[in-house]
Amino acid sequence: MSSPSRFHGKSRPPSTKPHDIVEEEEGLLSGVSVEGKESNDTRRSWSRGRIVGTAVFFIGLLISGAFVRTLLRGPVVPSEYSLWHKGGELLSNGTHEFKRTVLIVSIDGLRADYLDRGLTPNLLRISENGLRAKSMKPVFPTLTFPNHWALMTGLHAESHGIVANNFWDPKSKTTFYYNRIESCWNPDWWFGEPMWETAEKAGLLTANLMWPGPPKTTSGASSTYFVPWKDHVPLSEKLEQIINWIDLPIELRPQLVMAYEPSLDQAGHATGPMSARVNKTLAQVDDFAKDLQSALHARNLTDIVDIVFVSDHGMTDTSDPELVYMDDILHDEGLEMLEHVDGWPAMGLRFRESANVSHYLNMLLNASDANPEKFDVYTHETMPQRYHFSHSERIAPLYVVPKIGYVLTTKAEGDTGMSKGNHGYDNDELSMHAMFIAHGPFSTDVKALHHSGKKPADHHWESTESNTYIMERFPNVEIYNLVIKLLGIDQFAAPNNGTVGFWDRYL
Ligand SMILES: [Zn+2]
């Protein structure tokens, strides 16, 4: 092969492998890396000043409204939390009325077992007071955009359409780039109904602080408040924004807040999961969790707000991988016949129309059979069912999936720009698994029910000596249904890949 660009094909920009990672490190995650780049559509993006200004206006309404309500109905008292919330009822933190609220925070790249390093005392304390899962299983491929959209929609990648961070779509004959605004803000790419759309349908206000995904869906739905992606925003500013939303008068306050933090993933790519930088960043996000929890505690909201900490995937060390050269398998003539190469580190291959695809498939299968420890080769028909990764024309007809420790490359590319850490591998690998921690009325009720003996633990969890409840591993497509249930808006839930009754095992 004479040129790396030939191998990359049209859908893979030159040096995609290092390029993507560099971009993720530099924070071009959704193509909106600088302020003032927002489009002038009808998106409701609220500046802090606007929120405060409007808040002043509505505080008057709130005071008069609360007064009238008190006159009509008497003082508001907290409801019982022994059953799933019915939605709509007013609760009190002692001074203000609140509706049931869910705060979901994604810490990108927080591998489940990072929590066992002794560096996250605050997250562990929150989980001791609440719940924690052994790990949460990401969807395949274990990449940022497919998984953040799975968390939002409860759908596997084959159903929600974001089948990689970069991929070719044969229907529209265009390529999705996670880091280009014309792709990632175009609603046509994003299938399924995100939880914020469901909540808005149910009449709730929602707020999105940089969660990867589009500001609008094809139906025209958007979150009430939307803060677009920007890199290197200090965690203190994110905390301030979240708390500003929580402190809004009830008429303006979002009941669902989604927030995203990328620094730990960036550290994992740059220096590897075992590095000092990862440990340092881990401690920083742990402090953020403490500050967030303290702010809720100070407002007496821990029995009103459910806070859910999640991540999208884990991270594995790739500082010393064994390189698998595609040149050796497909030879120059095979590489020349490639039209599009999707994804990373797995490779979705689309050959030119004139290519003898079964010939190249056989070459790939023979190579895989000769070195089964290095990589697998799948078609839609042979893709493991557990990947839920075949029923979409966006998924390339041939997929090469490397095992951990191996990197697919070409002689021209070699290990140029390789990062020290990566993800995207088999979602059964525990190093790819994400974290789940929840605290709030949900976890309080779960524990109370368990202690009362009304709801036996079965095999779904175990409680440790420190009274930490550790749930069995579960797939992240269950999160959509959890949040919808916590908000009490089940009747509005969209069809999804979550398990019917999954959360009823706990409450
Ligand atoms: Zn990620």
From TrEMBL:
Keywords, in A-Z order: Membrane, Transmembrane, Transmembrane helix
Gene Ontology MF terms in the entry: nucleoside triphosphate diphosphatase activity; ribonucleoside triphosphate phosphatase activity
Biased composition (Basic and acidic residues): 35-44
Residue ranges, annotated region (Disordered): 1-45
Source organism superkingdom: Eukaryota
Transmembrane domains' residue ranges: 51-72
Keyword presence, Transmembrane helix: yes
Keyword hit for Membrane: yes
Annotated GO biological process: nucleoside triphosphate metabolic process
PANTHER family referenced in this protein's UniProt entry, alphabetically: BIS(5'-ADENOSYL)-TRIPHOSPHATASE, ECTONUCLEOTIDE PYROPHOSPHATASE/PHOSPHODIESTERASE
Protein name: Phosphodiest-domain-containing protein
